[in-house]
């Protein structure tokens, strides 16, 4: 007999800042050689899943390379099959919760509330992605039988299924099923881009006005976003109509080509990035970061070479050294700046340093922000 610690229930516990505080209750599930606890018709049980998870951790990898390749293929198929099982379980959870809520007298328009949150918790994901997972599950189970069948046997990945669902989202349920049926024989042979293009082409042929609905919806969603990148960099992304996006890229490339022709030693990519910053901010140079960045840095990190990270609101933490470089760039100093002796206070003047009114002094707003840490 073997005993496994396994999840038997999850419940919503989101903190005020949107993070997860508690996710699962656990219990011991028992399996034995005679398959005690197995479903009557031989289907996999929750205890079986727990056992499978344990066994996967001890997969024998000391095998020939040809077998390793086979293992990789099978594991990828297992991931697809698991995604299909998650979809079925998600839909069953949604149906069950709606029934419970209806029995409690919840208004019809509110039925299903909270189910996506539970899916997100169970899948270790955000609430936004929980809604996407549940939406995909419903589409697979109710409207995309061929895609669901391919996913169930591991012939495609969950991402491939997501592509088809995304490209058919503007279609009616009937047209989506038709796209799914036509794509069925090709699902395992097309690449991601080919699959997306094929799904769109079939959808356009079935429902030409869907093109206009898609375009109008996309244009309405235009936006600019920012997210952190490695090495204290950032991705600033503009989601734009195609003509505007191409025009932006062409203008940046032309500006870079002109600068290169004039002898600028920066690469085309560097010039495009610098021009992007300069044109949007109005700065004379891309490194002339304005005070509006609102860097929040501890006093010791700013003035005494400390290591506590700084924070840029809306972006997140950055290393103390990078923050000092940012401040140095703001005041016109080189990135390689001198360390200020320990114990220095904002506004102090030391021998060899500039006074409070000089350009070399760290900006007062940065020191004041740091003093709050």
Q: Could you explain the architecture of this structure?
A:
This protein is mainly alpha-helical and 373 residues long. It has four domains: 1-55, no CATH class; 59-219, no CATH class; 223-281, no CATH class; 291-371, no CATH class. Helices cover 51% and strands 10% of the residues. The protein has 14 helices and six strands. It has a two-stranded antiparallel ribbon. Strands 3-4 form a two-stranded antiparallel sheet. A two-stranded antiparallel ribbon has the order 5-6. A hairpin with a 3-residue loop joins strand 5 (310-312) and strand 6 (316-318). Helix 2 crosses helix 4 (127-143). The two termini are 55 Å apart.
Shape type: globular
Work out the radius of gyration: 28 Å
Number of strands: 6
Mean pLDDT: 80
Total discrete domains: 4
**Strands side by side in the biggest sheet:** 1-2
Largest sheet report = 2 strands, antiparallel
The level of helicity is 40-55%
Q: Alpha-carbon distance between the termini? A: 55 Å
Question: Uncertain spans, ≥5 residues at pLDDT below 50?
Answer: 1-36, 331-373
What structural category characterises the helix and strand content? mainly alpha
Provide a count of the helices: 14
Beta-strand residue percentage = 5-15%
The helix-strand sequence is EEHHHHHHHHHEEHHHEEHH
Short structural summary:
The protein has 373 residues and is mainly alpha-helical. 51% of the residues lie in helices and 10% in strands.
